[in-house]
């Protein structure tokens, strides 16, 4: 089995230079290329256990989340895994469905000595902030502003995104705008509704708000109610409900972009979206995962000290605004 000395000899660099390469330090591009080629040629495998004992690290990140099967969640995980692998880390993923499980799964991750935690709950949770504050390893929370000050936090600028869509409909002359909201029990749903209400402030146009329950069925029923009310533009704040909305349009013979303006949250690529006459708010799920991993790895390298905890606001991509996706 090849050793680090063999890699250094073949690459024509010092053992220390190879060690810095393996630990993610910046090197001259030529040296990086020579070391990478030597590692591939020798089929060198780093001894992670020995490395961890030496540096008092496990080279693993804990990821605690619910709704792992959602498309947004899976793309977040993909982004985290990408950055973790690039930096020689593995992911220990722990999912849960209720509040008792989340405490058990947190204990499980801590018992496995992960070097850092990334926490993503798609539903709002009531945190015992003191418990999280006592954890000594770096933590990054996704979409939970109440954890500011005890951990780094990543947030999506949903309020501005929805404001821009509703303002677009107002500028197009719509006087009756329907808004199909998710339940107001979590931060994300509230931010999206706040954005819609802010756009409507001091405007003569009307907005009718119907609250669904994240399901396709509630999307259908809510859209049916908004169409009966006379909405000429409808925005749906959740992907699953938007599927029900489109089914409702189809049943009633309404053509999106001709008979009614339609906007919603989705995860379509720009290429997919370009064929559809609708406005889509596209959250940067994979990039959010990448940023979360970068933040927690940066904290690990710094020893979880020094700078104040960061709050990073990430922008959604708005697709369809330029094409004028309205009647």
From TrEMBL:
This is LacI family transcriptional regulator. InterPro entries: Cro/C1-type_HTH (IPR001387), HTH_LacI (IPR000843), LacI/GalR-like_sensor (IPR046335), Lambda_DNA-bd_dom_sf (IPR010982), Peripla_BP_I (IPR028082). Keywords: DNA-binding, Repressor, Transcription, Transcription regulation. The gene is rbsR_3. It comes from the Bacteria. GO terms for molecular function: DNA-binding transcription factor activity; transcription cis-regulatory region binding. The keyword Transcription applies. The keyword DNA-binding applies.
